[in-house]
Amino acid sequence: MTTPGALDGFRVLELGTLIAGPYCGRLLGDMGADVIKIEAPNRPDPLRDWGQAEGGNQYFWSVHARNKRCVSIDLRVEAGRALFLELVATADVVVESFRPGTLERWRIGYDVLADLNPRLVLARVSGYGQTGPYAERPGYASVAEGISGLRHLNGFPGQAPPRMALSIGDSLAGLFAYQGVLAALLARERTGCGQVVDTALTEAALAVQESTIPDFHKTGHVRQPSGTRLDGIAPSNLYRSRDQLWVIIAANQDTVFRRLAAAMGRAELADDPRYATHTARGTHQDELDAMIGEWAAGLRAAELTELLNRHGVVTGPVNTVAEVMTDPHFLARGLFVEHVDPSIDEGEEGFDPIPPQGVGVVPRLSATRGGVRWGGASRPGTHTDEVLGELGYADDDLAVLRAAGTIG
Fold first, then answer.
1. If you average pLDDT over residues 5-33, what whole number do you get?
2. What start-end ranges are recorded for coiled-coil regions in this protein (predicted)?
């Protein structure tokens, strides 16, 4: 059972496909907003076919389309645009992730939308942003991570920079777009007017890179990939235990390093000039890693983490998803929740009596937490009649629109 969300009463129209824009829409829906995902008839979001599938259920889709009502409207035809504008008049937010200029070509740019609904917030998510020499280029997360410098920082020195097994650039852009929407809605309370939130995948990937820009600008330092650790931050690495499991030990703060030294039975290390301060430990990082690695290799992972936790040292395992889903802490927090597909009825082919689980709503709000009300509908257009019915369209009207191909 879900609780009311902080965005209950807000309506969001989501356009676009794949991950970045829809992730922003998902986060708004998690907080209670009525998110209406608009897909073109016969051209649904390709994300519906991504990832693992079973019995007609696409699990990637069920997570990113959760809490959304799926409507099929062709925005490329005049009748479809008219339907969309009727929905815009009722909306607080539109999220789109097309290449810049697409809405303008369809004659539904922000000038048109704001004239109809001055309080509307338009979140535009694209590869390079709405302006600049690269604006019209198509953009994917992989390229955004590369051009922003984020990919360069990943991996080991001298090796090809790998990507994480996630579209992290998309997720970062979705998060920044979500943040921008919330800020714009808050500003609207003061001004009474909406605005455009311009989010670029490239800029989202750049914005999380700590001090790389001022470091280079003022000193010429180019941060390099550093494998399993951060250069100059020591000790903070992963070490292999006696039973061949990886354990992360992070004790780069002076007080925590003192506790690590005590746990190792080497309390004198905390007063050794080579290791007593943050800067000194960074200088002698290789020595520390070798010393800690040798010590950790003498203990089983469970023994190692128990000892370190008892001494107040920051530590933890490197879990697979199988271990994550049985972790007692995550289970106690109720982090995994069911994603029920509203478009499949019990007894129907493809019905699974055990719905897939996914991660619940993050962060947790104490009074208006929101929740996963349903998983993504596996059938495009599941809620078309419902949503247009709320605008006053009768069954006969819908039949005419459907016959014309305006709706799906």
1. 97
2. none
